[in-house]
Specification:
The chain is α/β, with parallel strands linked by helices and 338 residues long. It is 39% helix and 19% strand. The strands form three sheets. The protein has a five-stranded parallel β-sheet. Strands 9-10-13-11-12 form a five-stranded mixed β-sheet, sandwiched between helices. A three-stranded mixed β-sheet has the order 1-3-2, covered by helices on one side. The longest helix is centred in the C-terminal third of the chain and has 20 residues, at 280-299.
């Protein structure tokens, strides 16, 4: 992991860092005016100690670095330092980040196996006026990480939930991939078994835009092989260990990447896979196949005219084109074209 230089702890100057500034519009839009019971915290950055003011009550969803510790924002450091507690997926990982910046806020384990009783206790603390920070192991919480149920519970109770934006491996991989970034779909993790994975890939095939997903290192070669078989010769990218010392971005077709990793074996580290759209001719062929299937089903119980109208409306295709195809299929079925 690429590490920033350790902070210099003993500088005489102390910078006052306000809890709210006009430039960022406050930390809890719509929150009650009453102050919470947050702490006067301290963090150290660039060799200077910065003292924070208590936060307003509420849940703060804080993005943390995905690798390089220098990617954390000053606002995130301030929230982590001033919160009553930091809810962390893995307290050992978060403790390293906080220690690097001289933050001593108490840590509470909150992960996907946390019982409802843990959420109930955290909601009670928020209702009592505390400020709690929620982080994941790396990046933006709730993106294939725990925390959704806690955020949902806080919203249902009318408690303030404030995002503290920052690093995200999904967007980091997208901007360096070279694939179209105007439209993309994030899938998360695909199923671990090949059959279910292929079925899911087939369902994703018609989505217009770049497909993005996380994958474990040990499953990467098999996943790429399945993707190549289901999706065909699409461009793809495997981004590994982003922002870290051994950051790697490998580009090629799905088949090429599948062959490379099959030969090399599973890589190490955290992985994001991106898959480009199918070529125009491939999309056209898929669309025609879907059209024929839909028309075949509709013609079994409707006239050519009615079947064409139904399918055109369902698929959003031009009526004239669908009608012409319905006539051709009807003739083929009746043997008139022989």
């Amino acid at each position: 992991m690429q590490m920033a230089k350790p902070p210099i702890p003993n500088r005489p100057a102390t910078a006052q860092y306000p809890a709210r500034t006009e430039a960022i519009g406050g930390d809890a839009p719509g929150a009650p005016a009453a102050q919470g019971t947050g702490r006067h915290g301290v963090f150290t950055a660039f060799g200077l100690a910065a003292e924070t003011q208590p936060l307003s009550c509420g849940l703060y969803v804080v993005a943390t670095p995905i690798g390089n510790l220098e990617d954390v924002s000053l606002r995130a450091l301030r929230i982590l330092a001033a919160a009553n507690a930091v809810l962390a997926e893995d307290t050992r990982i978060t403790r390293r980040l906080m220690a690097h910046y001289g933050i001593t806020t108490p840590l509470v384990a909150y992960h996907e196996h946390s019982a409802e009783s843990v959420r109930t206790r955290m909601i009670a603390r928020l209702q009592a006026g505390e400020a709690l920070a929620l982080v994941s192991d790396a990046g933006t919480p709730l993106v294939s990480d725990p925390g959704y149920k806690l955020v949902q519970a806080a919203i249902e109770e009318g408690l303030p939930v404030t995002p503290i934006p920052g690093p995200s491996s999904v967007l980091t991989a997208l901007v360096v991939s070279g694939l179209p970034s105007d439209r993309f779909f994030f899938e998360g993790f695909l199923p671990s078994k090949s059959g279910a994975r292929c079925n899911r890939l087939a369902a994703l095939a018609t989505i217009p835009g770049t497909l993005m997903m996380f994958e474990s290192a040990k499953r990467l070669p098999a996943m790429l092989a399945d993707a190549a078989a289901v999706l065909g010769p699409r461009p793809a990218v495997v981004a590994r260990e982003l922002t870290k010392m051994f950051e790697t971005v490998r580009r090629g077709s799905l088949a090429e990447l599948a062959a490379q990793f099959a030969e090399e074996g599973p890589p190490r580290g955290e992985i994001v896979v991106l898959i480009g759209e199918a070529a125009e001719e491939d999309r056209r062929a898929d669309a025609m196949g879907d059209l024929d299937i839909a028309l075949g089903d509709a013609l079994a119980s409707h006239s050519v005219k009615d079947a064409a109208a139904l399918v055109a409306a369902r698929l959003g295709l031009p009526k004239r084109e669908v009608y012409a195809r319905a006539v051709a299929l009807s003739r083929d079925a009746s043997g008139e074209g022989a």
